[in-house]
Amino acid sequence: MRNIKITLEYCGANYRGWARQPGHLTIEGILLDCLEKIIKEKPDLIVSGRTDAGVNAKGQVFNFLTKKKIPVDGIKRALNTLLPDDIYILKAVETDLEFHSRFSAKKKDYRYVIAKEHSVFENGLVYHCPYKLDLDAMQKAAGLFIGEYNFKKFSLTDRTRKKIKTVRNIYKLDIVSKQNKIILDISGESFLRGMVRLIGGILVDVGRGRIGLDVVEKALKGSIPMKEKWLLLPAGGLYLMKVYY
In the predicted model, what is the mean pLDDT of the chain? Predict the structure, then answer.
């Protein structure tokens, strides 16, 4: 038995997220169809983390087991021949059988891109913000998120699922202005569903002057009621940049 590790990039605009869903176009569904044609097996794909509908990746990772002896370079070439233009295999390697794309991951980097000016060539790939943002205020608010907190309120996680772990550790949250864009780079051990987009939405609201740093602090301490509605940034501006092992 062989364990094949794949690193890939994709534009999520045309897909209903990663996970295979009957009747919907998904990244996993496309990959499974292509792999079945190549290795003549139906492998189980183990992904580092499922991305939501519309979310992009520049360094997603998945692995699968196979008995076939096809060289990894041959798997990469064959996949890139069959895959649509918005999914591309960057690297394929054979790894040890204990490797697990999700449970072996140590850290993940995400990026969110906010455009200050509208461009039709970036539709669906950035968040076009029509408001003037206070970058200094956003950077101060970003610093408050670094550390270990219960991010249940900052996620789209089903609150009826009592067993799910909602405490996460953010290692870095940088905000910089580059040309006509504001770039949010966030690193952490793992992230809840919608977490990065909700944190980004709060930072946008801080930049607009709609909420102050005190609100962010209270939210992180859990002293704001669940009814508080945070701004959820569009999925198209979010990119999974890299998974560390």
Answer: 93
Tokens 């909420």 map to which residue? 211
Measured in degrees and rounded to the nearest 5, phi and psi for residue 22 equal -55, 130
- Report the distance separating Cα 231 and Cα 212, nearest Å: 14
Predicted local distance difference test score (pLDDT) of residue 230: 77
Q: What separation in angstroms does the CA of 151 have from each of 92, 98, 165? A: 34, 30, 9
Q: Which amino acid is at 182?
A: I
pLDDT tens-digit map of 230-241: 789 999 999 999
Place of tokens 């094949």: 4
Q: Is 81 helix (H, G, I), strand (E, B) or coil?
A: helix
Provide the CATH number for the domain formed by 107-244 in this structure.
3.30.70.660
pTM for the full predicted model? 0.93
CATH number of 2-95: 3.30.70.580
Confidence label for 212 from pLDDT (cuts 50, 70 and 90)? very high
- Residue whose structure tokens are 């509908």: 53
Kindly give the pairing relationship between strand 87-95 and strand 2-10: antiparallel
Within 89-188, where are the H helices? 135-144
Extents of the domains making up the chain: 2-95, 107-244
Positions annotated as catalytic residues are 52
Here the tokens at position 139 are 């950077």
| pLDDT the model gives residue 198 | 95
**C-alpha torsion 177→179→183→185, nearest 10:** -90
